[in-house]
Design brief:
Elements lengths: L1 H24 L10 H27 L5 H20 L7 H25 L1
Helix pairs in contact: 1-2, 1-3, 3-4
């Protein structure tokens, strides 16, 4: 039970860090000028995200989840949800667009899992 908690915690923190990195990366070249503060926030988010990903990967490996496709699926979902929530744009999407986004996310996750089984 502790391992599952740690996997979930590290994965969510990894996704949050990377989401921060992506959101601020989109602000680095605002109005054609380089924004050093946004660049540092972006880099810090990515740095934190990858460190948390390594912690999650350690726990996943200890549980026998060694395929990078499967490990990445958890991170991918957490990151996409984090970006959508932090940008605030997801709430402005129509119901159809939200459903389509969720279906695409599930489709990518399914493809990652299926190819991991086929090659693993």
């Amino acid at each position: 039970m502790e391992a599952m908690f740690l996997i979930g915690l590290f994965t969510l923190l990894s996704g949050l860090g990377d989401a921060i990195g992506f959101v601020y990366a989109g602000k680095v070249w605002r109005e054609g000028a380089f924004d050093m503060v946004a660049a540092l926030k972006s880099a810090g988010g990515f740095q934190f995200g990858v460190f948390m990903y390594w912690c999650a990967a350690r726990q996943l490996n200890a549980q026998g989840v060694v395929a990078p496709e499967v490990q990445t699926t958890f991170w991918f979902a957490a990151t996409i949800v984090g970006v959508a929530a932090m940008s605030g744009q997801f709430l402005r999407w129509t119901l159809f667009d939200r459903a389509m986004g969720i279906m695409v996310l599930l489709g990518i996750a399914g493809l990652m899992l299926r190819t991991a089984r086929a090659t693993g």
